[in-house]
Design brief:
The chain is α/β, with parallel strands linked by helices and 207 residues long. It contains 7 helices and 11 strands. The chain has a 7-stranded mixed beta sheet, with helices on both faces. The chain has a two-stranded antiparallel sheet with strand order 3-4.
Length: 207
């Protein structure tokens, strides 16, 4: 089972690493990070790097495509090399998935037109400009396409996907292995619940 995760400059690390940490446990899983060129690809703003061991052109098929998001995703919405590759991978995939603003890349590739989808709350207008219908759910299944909302929701998506790739018991065992038992210290994880002071700080550029 080949799981392919494309990387690009200014991706968000947890978008890729969260699902990776779940899916690597699945029987037969082969996870491959790819990019336009091999080597280190850097997150932003702290310059964490993941290594792409293959280029986009080296990979012509996968069972699961997992597209992360991040600030760099918006700069690639007209990058036909990447978008064409996403379309080709989707053509043969069992599952095509995204985390956060990775859904913008699926949408720009023409895969979400007319479908319900989710993304980071700050990118709803861009998502809908490509013909998708935004829903605020953390994980949205539409046929073989799965979109997850902002950053941390990629773990939820990967666990839901693990249950379909293997079975519920396996997914629950993985959840136990990573001790994923969220009990956040603050109830500020969505625009509907966050206090105005937190929204104001974010608007001034904390992220």
């Amino acid at each position: 089972m080949r799981i392919v995760i494309p990387l690009f400059d200014r991706f968000t690390a947890l978008d890729a690493v969260g699902p990776y940490e779940v899916l690597k446990f699945l029987p037969g899983a082969e996870i491959l990070f790819v990019a336009a060129e091999t080597g280190a690809v850097r997150d932003v703003p702290r310059s964490l790097a993941l290594t792409a061991d293959a280029t986009l052109d080296d990979v012509d098929s996968c069972d699961v495509l997992l597209v992360p998001g991040g600030p760099g995703a918006r700069a690639l919405l007209e990058e036909e090399h990447l978008l064409g590759w996403i379309r080709r991978m989707h053509g043969g995939s069992t599952w095509t998935t995204s985390v956060c603003t990775g859904s913008l890349l699926l949408a720009a590739a023409g895969l979400l037109k007319g479908l319900a989808a989710t993304t980071h709350w700050g990118a709803v207008d861009v998502l809908e400009s490509f013909g998708a219908s935004y829903t605020p759910e953390r994980v949205v299944f539409q046929g073989k396409i799965v979109t997850a909302a902002g950053v941390s929701s990629g773990i939820d998506m990967a666990l839901a996907l693990a249950a379909r790739l293997a079975d519920r018991t396996t997914a629950e065992a993985v959840q136990l292995a990573i001790e994923y038992d969220p009990q956040p210290p603050f109830d500020a994880g969505s625009p509907a619940k966050a206090p105005q002071a937190a929204k104001d700080l974010l608007a001034r550029g904390i992220r």
